[in-house]
Write a structure and sequence with these properties.
By secondary structure, this protein is mainly α. It has one domain (3-116). It contains 6 helices and no strands. It has helices at residues 3-25, 30-34, 42-45, 47-69, 73-97, 101-116. Helix 1 (3-25) packs antiparallel against helix 6 (101-116) and helix 5 (73-97) packs antiparallel against helix 6. The longest helix is centred in the last third of the chain and has 25 residues, at 73-97.
Length: 122
C-alpha cells in the first residue's frame, strides 16, 4: 500500500472514529450542534438509534485501521480496498436517503482513497 493510500485511510479512519464518538457518546450534547437540521426534541428520542449507527462507524474505522497494521502488502491492500468500498457504499446510501452532505463528508474521501490505490507509488 502506498503512502498516499495510508494517509487517506488514516484520515477516513479518524473521521469514522469521530462519527462513532459523536453518535454513541455525544449525541444529545455535541450532536445537536453538528446535526442542525434535526429538531432538538428528536435527539433524546433517537439516542439508541444513533448509538447503533455509531457502532457501525466504529467497525468501519476498525477495518481501516486493521488494513494499516497488516504487514503483507497484498493482504493489506485488499482489506483497505474492501473497507474503503464499504465506506463509499455507506456514503452513497446516506447521500441518497439522508443528506447530500454525506456524499462530500464520507463518499468523496473514500473515492479518493480508492483512486490512490491506482497510483504506483511506494
Amino acid at each position: 500500500m502506498n503512502i498516499l493510500s495510508q494517509l487517506i485511510i488514516g484520515f477516513i479512519a479518524t473521521l469514522h472514529l469521530y462519527i462513532m464518538w459523536l453518535e454513541m457518546f455525544a449525541w444529545t450534547t455535541r450532536g445537536k450542534k453538528v446535526f442542525k437540521t434535526i429538531p432538538e426534541k428528536q435527539f433524546e428520542k433517537t439516542k439508541v438509534m444513533a448509538a447503533n449507527q455509531g457502532l457501525y462507524n466504529g467497525f468501519l474505522a476498525a477495518g481501516l485501521i486493521w488494513s494499516l497494521l497488516i504487514h503483507d502488502t497484498d493482504w493489506s491492500k485488499n482489506v483497505g480496498l474492501f473497507f474503503l468500498s464499504c465506506v463509499l457504499i455507506a456514503g452513497l446510501y446516506g447521500a441518497m436517503t439522508a443528506s447530500k452532505r454525506i456524499f462530500v463528508v464520507q463518499a468523496v474521501p473514500a473515492i479518493l482513497g480508492l483512486l490512490s490505490f491506482m497510483l504506483k507509488l511506494n
